[in-house]
């Protein structure tokens, strides 16, 4: 005779008279739709007993990978990624010495004005 495991033959593991209504297909569920910026709809089901604070406001849409929100009219915007810049691109963006000096002087004057050590006319 072959035997194995501790489950009674014909029974489902984990199922029982207590708690079966609280999970699986028998539990009361609510349907919530999420929309991304491209108009894709994703439907998720949550337990009806779950408080509103525990239901996520946004999710990642499996269709597009974009964030999706519950408001169809105002979905989260598409994330704008900046392209990778090389070191040379940053060097080209640097200001000249004259521009740097004028910016520094302007910032120092603003600080002096805020501290009241210099009148704004100077």
TrEMBL record:
A Pfam short name: RbpA
Gene Ontology molecular function: bacterial-type RNA polymerase core enzyme binding
Keyword terms, alphabetized: Transcription, Transcription regulation
Top-level division of the source organism's lineage: Bacteria
One of the protein's GO biological processes: positive regulation of DNA-templated transcription
Segments for region (Disordered): 1-21
Described function: Binds to RNA polymerase (RNAP), stimulating transcription from principal, but not alternative sigma factor promoters.
Complex formation: Forms a complex with the RNAP catalytic core and with free principal sigma factors.
Protein family membership: Belongs to the RNA polymerase-binding protein RbpA family.
Protein name in the entry: RNA polymerase-binding protein RbpA
Protein's organism: Cryobacterium serini
């Amino acid at each position: 005779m072959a035997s194995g495991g501790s489950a009674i033959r014909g029974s489902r593991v984990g199922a029982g008279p207590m708690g079966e209504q609280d999970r699986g297909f028998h539990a009361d569920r609510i349907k919530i739709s999420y929309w991304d910026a491209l108009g894709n709809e994703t439907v998720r089901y949550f337990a009806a007993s779950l408080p509103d604070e525990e239901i996520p406001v946004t999710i990642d849409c499996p269709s597009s990978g974009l964030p999706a929100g519950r408001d169809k009219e105002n979905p989260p915007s598409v994330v704008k990624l900046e392209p990778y810049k090389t070191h040379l691109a940053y060097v080209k963006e640097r200001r000249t010495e004259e521009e740097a000096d004028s910016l520094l002087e302007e910032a120092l004057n603003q600080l002096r004005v805020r501290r009241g050590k210099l009148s704004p006319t100077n």
